[in-house]
Amino acid sequence: MRKLSKKSRITAAVAGVALVAVGGGAAYAYWTTTGSGSGEATNSSGGGTVTLHANFAGGLAPGNQVNVTYTADNSTTSSTVVGALNASVTTNVAGCLPAWFEVTADTSNTRVAANSTATTVGSGVLKFNDEAVNQDACKGAVVTVTVGSV
Hints:
The protein has a domain at 51-132 and 141-149: Sandwich (Immunoglobulin-like), CATH 2.60.40. The relative contact order is 0.21. It is 15% helix and 34% strand. The model has no long low-confidence stretch (mean pLDDT 83). The protein is of the alpha+beta class. The strands form 3 sheets. Strands 1-2-7-5 form a 4-stranded antiparallel sheet, with no helix packed on it. It has a two-stranded antiparallel ribbon with strand order 3-6. It has a two-stranded antiparallel sheet with strand order 4-8.
């Protein structure tokens, strides 16, 4: 192996120091910065609408009454509250007068979970009043209780 001259040794040493300095500097180089930002998304527009049901036994006769259970189905993705209930009666026969019936609906304020069915939200009573007139038109008639929430 050949010996390096003094000049070659100095050149090699300077090159080595320069290489370490450049390589070492790259290892410690970084950028500093500041920043801020935000994001947004729109929430659901509300609790949505529930479907209410009135459930009661058939077979009413003048002077009788049956209990009514009110339930709600919520097909939305958020829970909601069913407030005060109101109910009314209709029949499918013109001579069977809705005025012969009385229906109650207790105030509820019941939470109905998202994606739920048949949640009980209230109760009441359906009465077939015994009037002093012929009520034969109601024999076999379909009595419908319509329920709403306010």
